[in-house]
Amino acid sequence: MTRLVEHAEKSPVQVDTTGEPIFVCRCGLTRNEKGLCDGSHQKAQDEKEGKLYCYDKQLNRKEIKGDEVKQCGCA
Questions:
Q1: Which of 38, 44, 39 is nearest to 9 (CA)?
Q2: Is 35 part of any domain?
Q3: Which residue, among 50, 26, 47, has the nearest Cα to 38 in the 3D structure?
Q4: Which residues constitute the domain of residue 45?
Q5: pLDDT tens sequence for the chain (75 residues)
Q6: DSSP bridge partners of 23
Q7: Which InterPro entries match (predicted)?
Q8: What is the pTM (predicted TM-score) of this model?
């Protein structure tokens, strides 16, 4: 089953519980299996407010309009 998950954040969040800060992904584009930031959020920096985008596995972005979300091919 494929899920469409909306992420609005464009930067990671810093977490420090052991004296060594880590950065957790909030954009949803990281390829890190533990969900840590890998800098992929840079691809989302120029997204326009109010627009919907999907990214393929190579992080190529496509703007989704209307009913295209069902066939975006980014899953």
A1: 44
A2: yes
A3: 26
A4: 13-65
A5: 566 778 899 999 999 988 899 999 999 999 999 999 999 999 999 999 989 998 988 999 999 887 766 666 665
A6: 14
A7: MitoNEET_CISD
A8: 0.76
